[in-house]
Amino acid sequence: MKNRKITNGIAFLLITLVTVILQFKHLNEIPAYTHTWAQNDRLALANGFVRNELNFFKPQNYILNHQFPKNWSDPSYSTITAVEFPIHDYVPAVFMKAFGTNEPWVFHTYILIYSIVGFFFLYLLSKKICGSEVKAALVVVFAITSPIYTFYQGGFLPTIPSIANTIIALYCYALYFEGGKTKWFRWALFFFTFAALARFTFVIPFLSVLGFELIRIFQKKARFWPNVLAVGVSFLVIFAAQYYNSTLRDTYGSDFLSQLLPADNWAEMKSILEHMWEVMVLGYLSMKHYFLLFLLIVLVFIALLIKERNSYQVFSSWWIIFLFWIIGVCLFWGAMTKQFYAHDYYFLDTFYLPIVFFVALCLSVLPKPQWYFGETVMALFVIYFGMLTFRETSDFQQQRRFFMAGDHFTGTVMNFEGSDEFLSKSGVAREDTILVIHAYGPNIPFVQMNRIGLAVVGHNPDDIERGLNWKWDYVVFQKPYFMEDVYAIYPQILEKVEPIATNENLILCKRKTDTIPQSLMEFMGVKAPYKKIRFNFESSKKSPGLAFEKDSRDSKNQIGVVVENEVYGFAQDFTKEVGPDTKGRVLKINGKFLRKNERPIGIIVAYSTGNTLAFYQTIDLTSVSQANEWTEKEFILFLPKRSSVNEKLSFYIHNASKNVVLLDDFEFTFYRN
Fold first, then answer.
1. Claim to verify: residue 344 and residue 427 sit in the same structural domain
2. 345 shares a domain with 299
3. What gap in Å lies between CA 310 and CA 305, rounded to an integer?
4. Is the same domain home to 231 and 315?
5. Is the peptide bond before 69 cis (omega within 30 degrees of 0)?
6. Bridge-based pairing state of the strands 602-609 and 612-620
7. Could you report the per-residue pLDDT of 625-641, keeping only the tens digit for each?
8. What is the pLDDT of residues 213-241, one digit of tens each?
9. Pairwise CA distance, residues 413 & 29, whole Å
10. Which of 464, 489, 524 is the C-terminal boundary of a domain?
11. Does one domain contain both 534 and 520?
12. What are the entry keywords (predicted)?
């Protein structure tokens, strides 16, 4: 007993240590990088509970025009929203209220503690199933180093607590299954119910265990009547919560999906499967995880073939639970196929736990090593596997947190950083209603502003016109996205609103009451340029990635050429032009170009240190031009703050597809933002 307590304590400490090492640096990280939208929705709910004095039955976020049922087009002017049993948003709100802060670390810490407890119970459960502490450690290492789990482990989604509750429920059921008292079955029901309430997908393992228990009843290995009432109560609670959620949806609307999204046809399903395989498969598990799965399948097959199974077979019948479980998640995948295309956390909702369960069951089949120091060799293998997967998942977390300019969701998080203080200093009251055009992830800007408001999500003039006709006090635009998301679609916006304050990333406006015209640059708060660089290519001065030739239109004119085999054409280092500080800049690019064919070609502007990219923005030239025709274009880029003055600012024509591009009269104009 004493040794068991010591090993359990060591396991708990190691799980906590690994979690802290992987997650501590991100403890106060605002939701960003991957599924920024979904994670900010959860943080918005927690903040909503803080605002409504912890009224659990009226969950609310910041949005006055909800997604469902009218796709953000009809404001209800209420922030109350339907959402699945939001207990894992409510508890962080309680602590936020107690600590007097809505900083993300409160929410992060709650989810992390839940995950640590879940992994500890996974260790206990695996030790029961496998009959070995070393095998149990391998199961935990496999689970805790899954790249996708690690990313969301300290996040904001209710999936992580539901995974933990399901594991605890399985452990309680294992105690009952071994011959324990009925109370353990009821505790299992409690945690299964708790898991399914917050994330309905977790009703699948619940039903799998009930199906297995029904088989045991038919085999007269379990009794029906002592547990039927408790099972009935569990489902009554789940259905009552679903019913209450539906009444909220009918009354107030919702910002959370509540419908099935199967593929429309076999071709679409095949396309989604291919996308998951090509893009997501190594995000779910690393190559080391897949190798271990393959190795276990081979070893189990050999063990069964030569009839050398583990003598400890108490839980061998649990393969039936696994079978029911995997069938259930496959059916769910069929019902929600479209969501799996771009929502990797659905893997955590479905296949993650059955795969971990599969690893434990496979290890339970394999006999204990009979050779000398067999357990020690296995322990060394677990340590080695853990080191490899730990390093791989750490690298994956770093890759996930790389910001690309095309990620407008994370860009919105960055643009609205400090916006609460900016609005307050500009005279915007906490009670004022804010309109945001165009909102990438409707709650994202409002979480940062800590104010309620209306979000225009669409990309057409009618959406913008409709939003401008709603009831609001101020409208906020993001400078980096204003040109493409607002002005290019609805240029008359300059006649509708006027700026009253700007900062590096935002433009705060009110309704325009006069007819005095405004210039675009003045509207965006961009002042006179401080640097201009011109290239007319008349001089044959050597430039990286650039050749020269006579212009076929005018023999007196010389033009630049990015040849077919030049991947990084017309490369320029503008670090000196950015200036000695790290503040953001505005870069306006004017130029004429001609591409010789339809192969993709683009401009890239990037920050880098050595060979490591810190930021890059791509401008697609193919979509704004015709092959073999000269095109003149102007692009305005809002460059973010650099992390240090040593970061290099680069410009180049990216020609990975081997096009041929002619260039003439390029001008780069730099503005302080």
1. no
2. yes
3. 13
4. yes
5. yes
6. antiparallel
7. 999 999 999 998 888 88
8. 999 999 988 887 888 999 999 999 999 99
9. 11
10. 524
11. no
12. Cell membrane, Glycosyltransferase, Membrane, Transferase, Transmembrane, Transmembrane helix
Task: Indicate whether 321 and 376 sit together in one domain.
Answer: yes
- Two tokens, residue 51: 């605002």
Separation of CA 263 from chain center:
22
In the block, tokens 């791989």 appear at 392
In this structure, the number of other CB atoms found within 10 A of the CB of residue 12 comes to 16
Candidates 286, 282, 276; CA nearest to 336 is 276
pLDDT digits (tens, 9 = 90+) for 587-612: 999 999 999 999 999 999 999 988 88
* C-alpha atoms less than 13 angstroms from C-alpha of 128 in its C-beta half-sphere: 19
The predicted pLDDT at position 624 comes to 92
Q: Which pLDDT tens digit goes with each residue over 393-437?
A: 999 888 888 887 778 899 999 999 999 999 999 999 999 999 999
Query: CA-CA distance, 102 to 668, in Å (whole number)?
Result: 42
User: pLDDT, tens digit, for every residue of 127-159?
Assistant: 999 999 999 999 999 999 999 999 999 899 999
Place of tokens 């643009």: 415
Q: Name the band, by pLDDT with cuts 50, 70 and 90, for residue 569.
A: very high
User: Which residue type occupies 284?
Assistant: Y
Q: Inter-axis angle of helices 408-415 and 36-51, to 10 degrees?
A: 40
pLDDT of residue 581: 82
Q: What is the CATH number of the domain that holds 563?
A: 2.60.120.260
Residues 54 and 107 in one domain: yes
The CA distance from 200 to 65, in Å, is 25
Q: 503 and 469 in contact (C-beta within 8 Å)?
A: no
Same domain, 510 and 412: yes
> H or E segment at 170?
helix 159-177
Q: Quick one: how many helices (H) and strands (E) in the chain?
A: 26, 15
**Cα separation, 332 vs 399, whole angstroms:** 30
Burial of 318 (0-12, 13-18, 19+ CB in 10 A): buried
Domain that includes residue 397, residue range: 1-401
**166 vs 398, higher pLDDT:** 166
pLDDT above 90 for 247: yes
Closest among 411, 390, 427 to 584, alpha carbons compared: 411
Taken in order 493, 496, 499, 505, the sign of the CA dihedral is negative
Provide φ and ψ at 497, rounded to 5°.
-135, 160
pTM over 0.85? The answer is yes
576 pLDDT above the threshold of 90:
no
The mean pLDDT of the chain is: 92
Locate 435 and state its tokens: 């309109």
* 505 and 565 both lie in a single domain: no
- With a CB cutoff of 8 Å and minimum separation 6, the contacts of 92 are 46, 106, 107, 110
Looking at 466, 493, 524, the residue that finishes a domain is 524
The amino acid present at 425, given as its one-letter code, is K
User: What tokens were used for 592?
Assistant: 């004429």
CA distance 304 to 369: 16
pLDDT-derived band at 577 (thresholds 50, 70, 90) equals: confident
Under the banding of pLDDT at 50, 70 and 90, the label for residue 314 is confident
- Integer angstrom CA distances of residue 655 from 474, 477, 547, 585: 43, 33, 14, 26
Number of compact structural domains in the chain? 3
